[in-house]
Amino acid sequence: MALADSTCSPLDNPELRLSCFVNKALVNVGGDLAKLVPGRVSTEVDARLAYDTHGIIRRVHDLLRLYDEIAVPPERLLFKIPSTWQGIEASRLLESEGIQTHLTFVYSFAQAAAAAQAGASVIQIFVGRIRDWARSHSGDPEIEAAIQRGEDPGLALVTKAYNYIHKYGHKSKLMAAAVRNKQDIFSLLGVDYIIAPLKVLQSLKESITSPDEKYSYDRRLSPQSAARYDFTAEELTKWDQLSLASAMGPASVELLAAGLDGYVNQAKRVEELLDKIWPPPNV
């Protein structure tokens, strides 16, 4: 359907035409999803714009216009932006317009706190990826401090970020992603959102427990527990580009770069696919 779009087809520049098709395809899929789910649909912003604040904002406005054409209102939408400083700044500016943003690739407390200060609607932390990095690397102060306390570094980051958001009244909701097992979910009970893989949901479904045990799990994260959490003066800084860069350890730097590479490769694969089947027979 995107390739048959009459606004994209006449564009002479092949790159602009392809970008137009990709945007239209994303919105077509997002529009179909909006018919299926009662909540919000998150649409990915091209990761190649991760270090271009104004480029991100322009792309989001382009996507919003396309959603408006198919009658999907802004309140049903989130726009997924990488948590570079430029992405966080784009989130701040978009949220000031009432446009909801979803900041992803958060692997450090500094990123999470800066995203909350920017007013991002959703902040996404990949629990399992942080754990995987810690198993084969060393030298990240934030991760090593968690391990010394006997904590899983991914779960510890979600806990700390949740407590920061809720203790200081930020509007952001925290999303835990890349959970690997049932215990991860039990350890994060109370977090705003969890992305649970099908195999984890299946293992929960297959668990054989008595009703008393089944409903006895304690909520680990709550506004009440957040109120009791103490932060250092350094953690309560007003984050800017320089302080964020200096506070991001090797884990968040490497994992952010790897995440961006993966998203860029996926975007290129979509473009290559659309390019191969352009023009479709009916155009």
TrEMBL record:
Any GO BP annotation: carbohydrate metabolic process
Keyword check for Magnesium: no
Superkingdom assignment: Eukaryota
Pfam family name, one: TAL_FSA
Entry annotated with the keyword Iron-sulfur: no
Keywords: Cytoplasm, Schiff base
Protein name: Transaldolase
